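Human: Not sure, check this?
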Amino acid sequence: MFIRTESFGEFVRTYKVITGLVAIHIILHLWVSLFPALWGQEIRLLGMGSNLHIAMGEYWRLITPIFLHAGLMHMLFNSFSLVLFGPALEQMLGPVRFIIAYLATGILANIATFILGSPMMIHVGASGAIFGLFGVYLYMVLMRKDLIDQGSSQVITTILIIAVVMTFVNPRVNILAHLFGLIAGAGLGPLILYGVSRYGRYRRPSSPDGLAFDPNRWQKKARNKQRLKTISLLVGAILVILFFAQYFM
């Protein structure tokens, strides 16, 4: 579910929303960082989340921070997480429902930050929306087991534990966005996943006639289980490294 075997071209053609989001991350980061004189500074100042300015009526700041980041490692961390965990959901939901889920959870996370955060709080990053995707997965693990296999459930559970722990490690993290993005994703799960099967929205697998007996099925199952455990540990380690690296760049 989270193993990427596509070539770069195949990934771009298959996961257009995720490709577009990552492209926006990269373009905006390069523009703001390298070309501040060419409206880069204005983009940063007008796009960042600012509770004070939101209170003054600048409500677009509930959306625009989702696409901006505080630095290179911050952008890479969120983009890597999106590339890793987004494709399965985009394929399952379809592009329209996926982008609605992504933006809705990100906006709800920013609303929570505005309501519960300090009036002077400033924030940027896609973390709230990405935790929203984690929240959808959490709902699947708890309530829609028909949509996710046991191995993928173990991977998601492991990553969620790591992600929540990391949220409280550094005070510079927007804890409110992380937690309420997760809650929003889980809360919207029933609506987001309505009418969805494991193979995609309103789709069923095109299976061959009958079931074929595989004498090596148990050995394959054991190998796949071990592979998924290894992948979950590797992914967790990479996320931890990227998380801490962003504060030393």
